[in-house]
Design a protein that fits this description.
The protein is mainly α. The protein has 2 domains: 3-116, Four Helix Bundle (Hemerythrin (Met), subunit A), CATH 1.20.120; 130-245, no CATH class. The protein contains 10 helices and no strands. The mean pLDDT is 91.
Length: 246
């Protein structure tokens, strides 16, 4: 992808993130709005990671605000996930989650408004780091996949693999069709199997949602039966992941 094509893609991602921020701020309680704005900001963050070091250094404050928004909004999103999963499994008081969500949404809203006022990122004539970043992510898949497949209890390793896959997927979107095919072949070689990145990312996302729910339920002595159901669901999800990778 040429520099001008990259610049167009970057502007497209930035404009999409800005639109999603507007929609989110208009109705922050809407779970779909929260999901959409997080997806668009993550996609933009991946695009920005391809910029030269001196450009990234110049806009370090901008990047940190994006990361902080994602971190805080993730806490609110996890509350929604847990509440939704628990409601399907049984009757449990989740008022503590409602309060936590409210606090984190308020902070996420303040950060979202600050993102709207950020200055645009201007590109330089330096080469992009696209190939370097893609290679590093593919190496991460090669290291992380065997560990994730070795035992279902490796929660952090599964979560880390999901993030690597997500970032690679967004980086590949910045490439031409020919380059995407080239790096997908490299990813398949590293994984020693063909990869359906989007599907695999979604499956690992379900496992992560189950993990955060289980972590919450462990702190609820009265949630014994619900916890056992969620642990069973999580086991089935992990088995599906392993089967998918065979």
């Amino acid at each position: 992808m040429t520099k001008s094509a990259f610049a167009r893609k970057l502007r497209h991602n930035a404009k999409r993130a800005s639109r999603r921020l507007d929609v989110y701020l208009a109705d922050a309680q809407n779970e779909e709005n929260l999901h959409e704005v997080r997806t668009s900001v993550r996609r933009l963050e991946s695009s920005l990671s391809l910029l030269p070091k001196k450009v990234r250094k110049r806009y370090r404050g901008t990047f940190e605000k994006y990361r902080e928004f994602l971190k805080v909004s993730s806490r609110a999103r996890d509350c929604d996930v847990i509440i939704g999963r628990v409601s399907l499994l049984g009757d449990l008081d989740t008022s503590d989650l409602q309060r936590k969500k409210k606090v984190n949404l308020a902070r996420a809203n303040r950060l979202a408004r600050s993102l709207k006022s950020l200055r645009p990122v201007w590109l330089t004539q330096d080469d992009m780091r696209r190939d370097k970043v893609a290679r590093r992510l593919i190496e991460g898949i090669g290291r992380g996949l065997p560990i994730a497949l070795s035992h279902g209890g490796k929660v952090e390793d599964l979560h880390r693999l999901r993030k690597v896959l997500r970032n690679l997927r967004y980086i590949l979107e910045m490439m031409s069709s020919a380059d995407r095919k080239k790096f997908m072949k490299k990813a398949a070689k590293a994984a020693r199997r063909e990869l359906e990145i989007k599907e695999l990312q979604a499956l690992l996302g379900l496992i992560h949602d189950s993990d955060v729910t289980i972590e919450y339920l462990h702190g609820k002595p009265e949630a014994g039966q619900i916890l056992r159901k969620e642990i069973s669901t999580r086991r089935q999800l992990y088995q599906k992941f392993v089967k998918h990778m065979k």
